[in-house]
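Changelog-adjacent note: as of this version, every example in the card shows the full chain rather than a window. The one below runs 475 residues end to end.
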Amino acid sequence: MSKQFDVIVIGGGPGGYIGAIRAAQLGFNVACIDEWKNDKGGPAPGGTCTNVGCIPSKALLQSSEHFEHANKHFADHGITATGVKMDVAKMVGRKDAVVKQNNDGILYLFKKNKISFFHGRGSFVKAVDSGYEIKVAGSTEETLTAKQVIVATGSNARVLPGVEFDEERILSNDGALALGGVPKTLGVIGSGVIGLELGSVWRRLGADVTILEGLPTFLGAVDEQIAKEAKKAFDKQGLKIELGVKIGEVRSGKKGVSVAYTNAKGEAKALEVDKLIVSIGRVPNTIGLNAEAVGLKLDERGAIVVDADCKTNLPGVWAVGDVVRGPMLAHKAEEEGVAVAERMAGQHGHVNFHTIPWVIYTSPEISWVGRTEQQLKQDGVAYKVGTFPFLANGRARALGDTTGMVKFLADAATDEILGVHIVGPQASELIAEAVVAMEFKASSEDIARICHAHPTLSESMKEAALAVDKRTLNF
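Full-length structure tokens:
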């Protein structure tokens, strides 16, 4: 017999579990279906982000950064550390423990909010008078029905044509997060967020890392000045980044992986590595959803077609996160999940795509919100620029990390902040001030007039805002 709910959420990643919680807060009877399993076969809600994305990668980045500090930077502080070694198995075990804490936290939140959780794969069966019938295929099969359905099935790693992931030598982010030891040589195809972060982890631990990028420019979505500053830092660290390459045959054998490619000059090259990470983006995950059973419309990419409010072509069916248009970011998915739950309740859910922050958690960190300088030029917008280097920031000097800068872009006529771009220490935390400012339509003068604690990295935000009017105080 079918179990009746007001709302069924298919997918327990950031968009799904947050949407389920908000719907429950608003008084709906909610079910959430998720099929992720831990190593014991138990439920592991949280999606890609928690299991093989944001959370585990940050755990490994933190561990590898501690290791690099101990080996290369402790001496600057008068700390003698000899014979420093990395126990990779223990590092990966810590990462797994952090992931489990997050999985368990989500299960607790479901109980707290009286959300019925079903462990398995959710798929459409048919439209019925009471809404939609959803099948849960897991250890036991269930049939659920609800008037409203939120699809939050996320995304999968894009496969390089002809090169399948074996997670032994040719790795997706999943395999790259679970290596049992440090490879002597590591190749990475793609210099996006995943490629740079995972390349950084294993480079710090001693791997010789080469990143091959098909585009002629480094981090094309990032402000050009910031991207150049970041690449200088990565080059100095020893990350080998080749741009404008064309990947040819990839062969995997007992000794490793061979990648044939043509470089930007048109020369034929070959890269021989122990392991290869392929990080060329992600594709919407609608596998097994059985969208055709109810006529749910997908686009040519396999993404679910939605309007500005995340409504699909079917009444009562919504979709959020990586499986729809827009940036594939966990926090974007969360905001859409909340907005959809509120729209179901007759409220006015809101997501502002112009103020979604982006972060790359390398060292230096890279973060930005709003438009880049090249976008403003392309759009014909008259603007002013203000920059401030961390080299001139007292807290950055004390930390021993003065790489990078803060950059403000403001409207030439109104002084409204149009974009803020940061490369440097704690950029991921600093960008929040810019997001708040832009949400409130602040001017650069507003930030310049606000008292920032001294000494802090946040003073660089104030100074960059002052620089828009050419009146920095410390540079």
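Structural remarks: Residues 355-468 form a domain with the Enolase-like; domain 1 fold (CATH 3.30.390.30).
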